[in-house]
Amino acid sequence: MRDAVIVEAVRTPIGKGKATGALHGVHPVDLLAHSLREVVGRSGIDPVLIDDVIGGVVTQVGEQSVNITRRAALAAGYPESVPATTVDRQCGSSQQAIHFAAQGVISGAYDVVVAAGLESMSRVPMGASVVGATDIGGVAFNERYPEGLVPQGISAELIASRWQIGRTAMDEFSLASHEKAAAATKNGSFASELVPLEGLSADEGIRLGSTVETLGALRPAFHSPDHAARFPEIGWNITAANASQINDGSAAVLIMTSEKAAQLGLTPLARLHSFAVAGDDPLLMLTAVIPATRKVLQRSGLQLSDIDLFEVNEAFAAVVLAWAADTGADLGRVNVNGGAIALGHPLGASGARLATTLVHALRERGARFGLQTMCEAGGLANAMILEAL
Fold first, then answer.
1. What are the C-alpha distances in Å from 68 to residues 41, 55, 232?
2. Is 99 annotated in the active site?
3. What predicted TM-score, i.e. pTM, was given to this entire model?
């Protein structure tokens, strides 16, 4: 039976997604090409062997439009014979790219694939793809949801309210994310996964020195009179400090069968064990990580207690805390090197970034199983389990 293994996984340092950020001057094509070039260079394989390149990008407009993955693969020096495509499952786009790549390898459609992700939020702002659109729902969708959906920040507020997660708990979680990310940077835990660019060798958004008291003074980020009237249960506790950052970055993962890895003299880092995708209430939007986690565990035949490390994307602290409360997962095994609140969340790159961090963390700690899940706009989530080799 065919399998799918990861033989290399790399990512750029994550830059602040603003004009003053260290990666703002890097064109999105070049930003993705950097990871594509490095993942092949580290493996030593001839890129002509690559059957496909699958890239995840969320805001596919402007410099990130027209199948940017193809242009990035060519910019990386891949032969013109190597095809490429770009997928969008919102924040889980590059995790979905990994799923598609692994599923293609297992099915026999591919032998060697690169799955990758990119977002340059400083150059292509979030939401740019819907600028000018007056109605993205259409008649039937709007009839099904006549009151309309809400921005993700409001969804996070609703989650915090439903799971009774207070401001202090979210701020404490956020501070811990920065502390873990700073420690991982200092002790070299990211060294094997990072491919520095000129001007940036470490993640730019990590901050130390804050306290629960200083974070508690921040104003709510998403309060509005209209939303307050519609949702009187909201406590208005989501701030810039307990939400993910806006960022630039890319990541890439090289996937093949274990048989092909042996033929090429490569040592796999991890096996792609199990996959799932789930949907949930699109108003709450960010809760599908809970059914996705249950679904992937059921498919894998594993129990929650079998999982050594978790990577749960920190879109908002409330999402991870609600997920942990509902699943019973030990937060001490979650995002052990920090998450998106500290490292950043370059949308389309984050799925591949989490996988890269997870595979290297499993190896560094001598752990066996890792579970990764990401909330996604529209009430979606991907989940997968990796088995270290």
1. 21, 8, 43
2. no
3. 0.97
